[in-house]
Every structure is written in structure tokens, then in C-alpha cells.
Amino acid sequence: MKRSKTMELGVGLFMLAGILGLVFLGLRVSGLSMQAPSDTFRLEANFANIGGLKTRARVTMAGVTVGRVAAIELDTDWYDARVVLELDDELEGQLSRDTTAAILTSGLLGEQYVGLSVGGDPETLADGDTLRDTQSALVLEELIQQFVSNMVSD
Amino acid sequence: MIQRIRRLGHRGCDLLESFGRAGIFLAQSAVGLPSREGLYLWVRQMHFVGVLSLAIVLVSGLFIGMVLSLQGYTILVDFGAEDALGQMVALSLLRELAPVVAALLFAGRAGSALTAEIGLMKATEQLTSMEMIGVDPLRRVVAPRLWAGFVALPLLTVGFGVVGIYGGYLVGVDWLGVFEGSYWSNMQASVDFVDDVGNGIIKSLVFAVVVTWIAVFQGYDLVPTSEGISRATTRTVVYSSLAVLGLDFVLTAVMFGGLA
Amino acid sequence: MFDNFTGMAEPMSDTPFVAVEGLHFARGDKEIFRGVDMTIQRGAITAIMGPSGSGKTTLLKLIGGQLLPDAGRVLIEGQDVHRQSRKALFAMRQRMGMLFQSGALFSDLSVFENVAFPLRVHTDLPGTMVRDLVLMKLEAVGLRGARELMPAELSGGMARRVALARAIALDPELILYDEPFVGQDPISMGVLVQLIKRLNQALGLTSIVVSHDIKETLTIADYVYVIADGQVMAHGTPKSLDVDQDPRVSQFVHGEPDGPVPFHYPAVDFVSDMLSPGGPR
User: Fold this and answer.
1) pLDDT, mean over chain C
2) What pLDDT does residue C255 have?
3) Chain B, 213-242: which have a CB under 8 Å from a chain A CB?
4) What's the pTM value of the predicted model, to 2 decimals?
5) What is the pLDDT of residues A38-83, one digit of tens each?
6) How far apart are CA B122 and CA B259, in angstroms?
7) By percentage, how much of chain A surpasses pLDDT 70?
């Protein structure tokens, strides 16, 4: 059977372009990095209210992304939200015991994320420890309610 | 009255029967190990349904990306949120527009051609004579076309998405003056490879199977006359467009609507 | 592939090569065959004739195993065609060649590749041998020079000759011709008539020719079946049919326009139809 070289080349280029396109979508559009996913360690934090926080949300420290939210569940002992954080391995043994976690919002209407800030305790957190000092999400309705009741009481 | 009900039942049975035939047809032709010869036939069909559809798909992708960017900008700028343009363009393209529009274009460009080609082979007795030579036309004629469609459409969808995002970039950044960094970084922050790119590709795989299946079956099952071929070609485009849009709703509900 | 020659060397046996027994076939509500019996002798050219629409092509498809009869059976060398597994049926078809009305050449392959197609599919012969065999077959139909042409570039008669070359590529024992003379000019008709006769003698084939071109068919046939109304109306050698007294047979064989097979499609009486009051129709 006569095989057309140009046709085979065309099909090869087509498939190559498709695969390259997929790589482009991976790297440039969804921001995957080529390096293997680094090892992580887990911390837990209980919040009275998580607002609109979702799993896979960012965890930042001084604005730098250092991990993501791995799981959110209801803690039935205290009836608050237990949030499991997955943090970069290199931070293990670096965070002081009184590190605080807060649920913050990027911009006025942006998505919510967890911000960590370190304290001054010489003892450090290990894998599986729980953050004691947390700050819940700001819920707009509650803020407005407070504002209105302050106005009334004034 | 009873006559009418009987006719309705007759229609229903006909419909079920054709579904059954189409299912058996797919099972008999798509399943099986390819030979070396089959691989070559597949490459030829890849050229036919894939490479030759590339131009129309890419040009459409470019324009759709540009329009999305333009429309999105005018809406977002009212909220002072034009930085989220990249996110909007990328998510609408990857989740929705690339799989659906590429599949519709594919049905019009490659699907109708497949129906007409196989129909013509049937009308000129090429399929029958192949059977008489002792070659199964399902494996020789149908299988390479099916598999070429299955592979080509997801690749075309990726191309559509990439070109569309670039088109959005051209309009948004080069023309409307959105800051380049925020176009890309907002996109990267919000697009998830598995959830968005992956689901888009799963959609396009489903569409590829459905569109190619409809096209090839319509060609194989048609009445072998000139009128039959033209009607089957029309049916291919109508049925596969409807199937793509209907399935898109179902898939979106399962993937992004929290039904899963 | 050379196994196919074994049948040829044997002396002609009494069992017919192809036997059709009590064949019934209906398409929808229309009965096409109502009990057809035929025997086709090895090495002979058997013609099956009948008016258009009498189901001649359907009969070939039944013999080739592409259609399933409602009752009755078709035996090839004693084996029931319709009781074979798909695999056995395809093996059986390798020993048959069929020439289709339209030629049915594969439109995406050149003339050479069309003739080579059965060889490539069914044999593992090296390329040079395939080439030699293809050129031999093309030479036999006089189209060796046209091997690089595509089917679209061929005239109707040439396409049919290429199709004939393809049908004999695997040296079959049985060839089925479906209306080989339809729509041919007198020259290519004469060429085809000669080819069918010559190939039958030279290759020791058994041929079944389905046609309604009486003159051409009668010159080459050894035995003739005439079918009409779903049954065998007459059969015999061309000579015996020529003098047959049955009015239906003689109308067909001598090509008279009106007779037992009416010229007019059934209608009400002409005069009363003309005089009836009514609309534009």
C-alpha cells in the first residue's frame, strides 16, 4: 500500500500539537508546576465559623502560599468546624506553638483562604497538632447586624 | 384511536430496534485488536477527520476567545474586576465552550463527511463487495473511522481551548489594556488541572464517541440511494448536535452541579 | 491460495457444485421467491434470466450468503451456506468471486491496489509476487496499462473489467456475475462476453450469470434458468429454450413487447378513464 509521507507527517504534527496544547493548559493556564508534589505535613485548626471556605483553598503565610486546605468537617464535640491544613514539609518544626490561623478574604468579593501568622513560643508544632488560636471568617451579615445594633444603642 | 396507539407503539418499537442495531454495530466494530494495516488505515482517517478539521476549529476558537474577552471585559469592568478576565475566559472555554463548540463543528465538518463517504460506499456496493471478498467492512471501513474520531475530537478540543485563551489574551491584554500578569495569574489561581481541564476533556471524549458513532452508523444504515445519503447526512448533523447539547447539560450537572 | 486449484483437477462429479432447494424469500410483504430449485454444474456457465424486478440480484446475494432465506437452503459442495459461522462463511467466500453491477471498485484505491486487495488480505505473499499476480490478472482483462488510474478515471466498461480482475484475483472456483452487460456500449459488451467465456474455460471456473440481456447471455450460457413470479418458469439449454412453446417463455426469449407479461401497468379501462369527469388528474 502506498503510504503518503506528508499525510503521516500531518497526523503526527496534529497529535504532537494536541499534546503540547495539553501541556500548555497544564502549565500556563492551570499553573501546575513541573516539580513533583513536595511532601506535606498536616495541622488541624478549629474555627467557630468558616464562612465560605472550601477544600483546596490556599493557606498562606505573609501572603506566600505555603499549603492548602485538605479537609473540612464538623467537630461534633464542640460543634465547630475542624479544618485540616496540608503544609509544605519544610515548615515542619518551624512554626511556633502559638501560631494563629485566620480565615481571610482576598479582595472584597474574592475567595476565602487561611492565613497563618507565627507567634513567639519557642516550642514548635509537629505533624497532627492542632492550632489553638483561630479567627473565624468575617460574615458580612453579622457585621451589618452589629453595625446596625450599635447605631440603635447609640 | 386504537389505530393511533398502535402506530405510536410501532414507532416506539422501530426506535428501540434502531438503538439496538446501533449498539451492536458499535460493539462489533470498535472492539478488537488493530492489525498493522488497521493502524495505517487509522492514520489515514486521523488525517481526514482530524487534520482537515483543524483549520475550522482553530479559527472558531480564536474568535470565540476574542468575543468572550470583549464581552467579559465590558461586564467585569463595571465591578472593577477586569483583572478576573483571564479566569473568566479560561473557565468558560475549558469547562464549556471548547468541548461543545468543537464537537458541534466536528459534527458539521467531519461527521457529515463520514456519513456521506460510508453511504456512498454502501450505495456503490463497495461494502457488499468487500464482504464477498471475505473482509469484514465493520473492521476494515468502520473501525478506523470510529477510532480516529475518538482520538481526534479531544485533541481538537485542546487546540480550541488553547487558541481561545490566546484570543482572549489578544483582546483583553493587547487591546483593552488588562494587566498581563493578572490575566495569567488569576487564571492560574482559579483553573484546576483535574477539575477544569480534565473534566473538559472527559466531556469532549464523550462527545467524540457520540458524534462519531452517530455519523458512522447513519452512513452504514442508510437507504443506499442519493436521496438516502443526503437525508442521512442531515440526520447526522441534527442528531449529533442535539445529543451533544443534551449530554452537555447532563455532564455539567454531574461534574459541576454537585450531583455526583 | 493454491489450494483453490484442487477442485479443478478432479473429474466432474455428479453432485452439483451449487444446489438451491426450495428457496423462499420475502422482503417486507413482497414475496420475491416462492420455492426456487436450481442445480448448477461444475465448470459450466449457468445463466439466470428474468424480467427486471424478478429478484435475480437477490438470488445472487442469497447464494453469496449475504441474505438469509425464509425457507429452503443453498448448498455449495454440499455445505449449507446459511448454516456457517461468520468465520466459515468468510472462508467460503474466498472461493467465490462476485462481479457487481456497478463494478464496486474501492474508490480510494488505485486500479492496481483494487486488484491486489484480496491478495493482501488473504495471503502473506511477498510484494513482488503480489505485483506479478496483479499484472497477470490485469493482463487477462487487457488493462495492465491502466494500473495507476483511480476508479473515478475509468469508463464503465473498464471499471467492470477491473472488477472482474479483482474477482479472479484469488483464483476462485465460482464467479457470480450480476448484470455484467447493463449499460455497456456494443464494443465493451462484446469484450465482456468474450472475457466471461474465455475465463471460464481457461481457469476452469463455474460461472453464474444473472442478466436480462438475452442475446449476449444465450451465446455464452451452457444452461439457462428463467425466473418469473418468484419461481423457475423454464430451464434448459439455450437451444431448447429458443423453441419453447410456453407463451411466457417465448415472449421473454424473443423480446416481444406485449404478451402474457402485459405492456400496461394495471389500470381501469382507457376509454372510461378518459371520459370520466374529474379534476386535473
Assistant:
1) 81
2) 72
3) none
4) 0.77
5) 678 888 888 888 887 877 788 888 888 888 888 888 888 888 889 9
6) 44
7) 91
In the numeric block, the cell 462429479 is attached to C13
- pLDDT class of B258 with cuts at 50, 70, 90: low
How do residues B200-220 score in pLDDT, each as one tens digit? Answer: 999 999 999 999 999 999 999
B43–A8 C-beta distance less than 8 A? yes
List chain A residues with CB under 8 Å of C113. Answer: 1-2
Angle between helical axes of B126-133 and B112-123 (0-180°, round to 10) = 60
- What Å distances lie between residue B11 and B7, B15, B25, B222, C243, CA to CA? 6, 6, 21, 18, 53
Kindly state the percentage of chain C with pLDDT values over 70. Answer: 91
- C150 contact partners, CB below 8 Å, separation of at least 6: C107, C110, C111
Touching subunits for chain A (3+ Cβ pairs under 8 A): B, C
**Residues of chain C positioned with their CB less than 8 A from the CB of A2:** 110, 113
Distance from CA of A123 to the nearest CA of B (A): 34
Q: Are C91 and C142 in contact (CB under 8 A)?
A: no
In the numeric block, the cell 448484470 is attached to C179
Q: Which residues in C lie closer than 8 A to residue B124 (C-beta atoms)?
A: 102, 104, 107
Whether A39 and A89 have beta carbons less than 8 Å apart is answered as yes
Q: Which of residues 157-176 of C touch B (CB under 8 A)?
A: 163, 166
User: What is the residue-wise DSSP string for C132-162?
Assistant: HHHHHHHHHTT-GGGTT--GGGS-HHHHHHH
pLDDT(B77) > 60: yes
For chain B, state the CA radius of gyration.
21
pLDDT of B60 higher than 90:
yes
Contact A21 B161 (CB under 8 A): yes
Touching B (3+ Cβ pairs <8 A), the chains are: A, C
Provide mean pLDDT across the span B219-247: 94
pLDDT value for C1: 39
Q: Which of B37, B158, B191 is opposite residue A22, by nearest beta carbon?
A: B158
Question: Can you spell out the DSSP letters for chain C?
Answer: -GGGGHHHHSPPPSS-SEEEEEEEEEETTEEEEEEEEEEE-TT-EEEEE--TTSSHHHHHHHHTTSS--SEEEEEETTEEGGGS-HHHHHHHHTTEEEE-TT----TTS-HHHHHHHHHHHH----HHHHHHHHHHHHHHTT-GGGTT--GGGS-HHHHHHHHHHHHTTT--SEEEEESTTTT--HHHHHHHHHHHHHHHHHHT-EEEEEES-HHHHHHH-SEEEEEETTEEEEEE-HHHHHT---HHHHHHHHT-SSSSS-SSPS-S-HHHHHH---S--
- Best B10, B36, B117, B129 residue to mutate vs chain C (most C CBs within 10 Å): B129
Instruction: Give the whole-angstrom CA distance, residue B80 versus residue C36.
Output: 85
Q: Which residues of A touch C110 (CB under 8 A)?
A: 2
Q: Which of B152, B154, B188 sits opposite A31 (nearest CB)?
A: B188
Give the Cα separation of B62 and B53 in Å (integer). Answer: 15
CB proximity under 8 Å: C 101-120 to A: 110, 113, 120
Nearest-CA residue of chain A relative to B89? A29
Query: Which of B146, B60, B148 shows the shortest CA–CA distance to B101?
Result: B60
Q: What whole-number percentage of chain A has pLDDT above 90?
A: 3
In the predicted structure, residue C116 carries a pLDDT above the cut 70: yes
Strand partners, C99: C177
Q: Does B39 touch chain A (CB under 8 A)?
A: no
Contact B189 A31 (CB under 8 A): yes
d(CA C158, CA C140): 13
Nearest to A14 among B51, B161, B201 (CB): B51
